[in-house]
């Protein structure tokens, strides 16, 4: 997912945060510290409200992370590697290295997320009751009660049968079970997601017209996010249908042009666009010719001109653990799933044993293969 930054790693899995989470973090803090807590308990020092607001925002983001970690744990227990986890405004996305192999696995991986949020909600609710019995300060009880409510709301919202929500995955699992067709089930879940998104947009704008305020704008924005995500998921399903049975080696560009990690930005630009470097993205290799990352023209262009002579590509590239990789014999459908939420739109293809670079897959490669496969579908 673009517009993210790395937060850290959990059990070797990269955890990224989308910019929308920062917005949510600030909204939660300001809403509680500058509004709800002050309104309900006006006699406390201002610092108390802001400290509690910040703590609640941190715990809320941690709750979203717990939701995604639960997905990752169940996926791993079912033999599916997790590429990374990204937190965003509607919860998070655990990007799996391959497609779920069966409806049962899909059901377990999808269902554990809302279940985790519901359990957290119950635990926070019990804690709020316990604190109230102990006559704890009102703002503290209210803050914990808010965490209970928001986690239960998150569980309910994510259970709605509409992609890309967890409920959409549950719907996909059920349809897949009855039809035996994973692609068709994804298309149906994506259609449900678009429909639900448009309902939210309509409700949001209707609310604006009726109330004369912009209170419904937030609902309309969420609907817009859902429509975009569901549409992308539907396109991915169509791609998976066309690429069924095709391996990565069949569509990759072999022997891609590489660039040494020690090359400076100035040297790199001197070889483009009509010299050695004619593309817009290049695998970066170390002294042993092992791939260590991917550099794009966009990344290089962000380096200030005075610093280009002293800045190496190693300093501006996307490191290899943030780049989508694949093996030549992997199904293209698995690679597409990983590429869908990746920050860089290329796949480095590595030899399964030596991990040497043997190819690259770009959006152009995918589009070209899609065109040919669609045109020759009746002959296959």
From TrEMBL:
Positions with a binding annotation for Zn(2+): 67, 71, 166
Transmembrane segments: 12-35, 47-67, 107-131, 143-165
Signal sequence extent: none
Compartment annotation: Cell membrane
Cofactor annotation: Zn(2+)
SMART domains: CBS
Keywords, sorted A to Z: CBS domain, Cell membrane, Hydrolase, Membrane, Metal-binding, Metalloprotease, Protease, Repeat, Transmembrane, Transmembrane helix, Zinc
Active site: 68
Pfam families recorded: CBS (PF00571), Peptidase_M50 (PF02163)
GO biological process, alphabetically ordered: proteolysis
UniProt GO MF annotations: metal ion binding; metallopeptidase activity
Entry membrane topology: Multi-pass membrane protein
UniProt keyword Cell cycle, yes or no: no
Similarity remark: Belongs to the peptidase M50B family.
Protein name as it appears in the record: Zinc metalloprotease
